[in-house]
Amino acid sequence: MNRSTGDDRVVALVPAAGMGVRLGENKPKAFVHVGGSPMLTWAIQGLIASGSVDEVVVMVPAELVDATRALLPASAVPVHVVTGGAERTDSVRAGLDAAPDADFVLVHDAARALTPPALISRVVAELRAGARAVVPALPVSDTIKSVDATGAVTGTPDRSGLRAIQTPQGFDARLLRSAYATGTRATDDAGLVEMLGTTVRTVAGDALAFKITTPLDLVLANTLAAQRDPADIAGGLDTTREAVTAP
Ligand code: CTP
Ligand code: MG
Question: Is 10-232 assigned to CATH 3.40.50.720?
Fold first, then answer.
């Protein structure tokens, strides 16, 4: 059994209330299917299969709360469904409000449906080792340039010092609540914590944790899902805690 036996309670908040405008499937993105299952189902299964999460809170559009409850896997890990908000920040705040008992919080995009459970475990391990804020990071392969409003290049930062940041992002729950209490908005939860002056640690990210954003991403996700061992998926569906194993 690899599930934590520590006293600290780890709650995963899953923002899944976005409209998926860039994907263009005419439905909230988390409910678009990948390999025959909604992205949201994959994301929840990955969190459960990590063995590192005590509870999951999912934030979805108001009209999909009941439908979401109906599609949840039977699991020893409780999964709660609440109404999200107009922007991602609002959805995360709704999730925080629904997780008053959390000691550590993971914020994990439903759109990162194929995130390996081992990455989730890495983030939690770093929190348990004493970090107060943790993000998965990957080196960037493209050269990144800054531009001004006219599109003219204003600079080329040294690529060796840049990272692409994924989810789950992990936090001391009180720290993230403080960050949200400032009322600042951000696309990235760690960005709010940085504004408080707290150090954010990185762990190795994983290319499979990519965010399904565009139609091309969906093609890739479906190809990868078709190759995934069904036993891995079933791991997240087991109803006994002991049977849940990380691949
Ligand atoms: N999200 C959310 N609530 C919102 C907006 C986004 O919970 N009001 C969630 C999405 O469901 C997704 C994650 O935040 O899991 C990352 O957002 P993004 O990839 O931008 O998804 P969408 O907002 O759905 O996509 P788009 O911006 O193309 O509409
Ligand atoms: Mg969005």
Answer: no
**Predicted TM-score (pTM) of this structure:** 0.91
- Give the residue, by CA position, lying nearest to ligand 1 atom 10: 18
The runs of H, that is alpha helices, within 166-214 are 173-181, 189-195
Nearest CA to ligand 1 atom 16: 109
Compute the C-alpha angle 134/95/169, nearest 5°: 15
11-41 pLDDT per residue, tens: 999 999 999 999 999 999 999 999 999 999 9
The string of DSSP codes covering 216-246 is HHHHHHHHHHHHS-HHHHHHTT-SSGGG---
How far, in Å, is the centroid of ligand 1 from the Cα of 150? 28
**Protein residues with CB under 6 Å of any ligand 1 atom:** 15-23, 29-30, 59, 84-88, 91, 109-111, 211, 213
| Domain segments of the chain as ranges | 10-232
Question: Cβ–Cβ contacts within 10 Å for residue 230, how many?
Answer: 8
pLDDT tens string 113-162: 999 999 999 999 999 999 999 999 999 999 999 999 999 999 999 999 99
* Best probe residue, ligand 1, of 29, 83, 96, 216 (max atoms within 8 Å of C-beta): 29
pLDDT digits (tens, 9 = 90+) for 168-207: 999 999 999 999 999 888 779 999 999 999 999 999 999 9
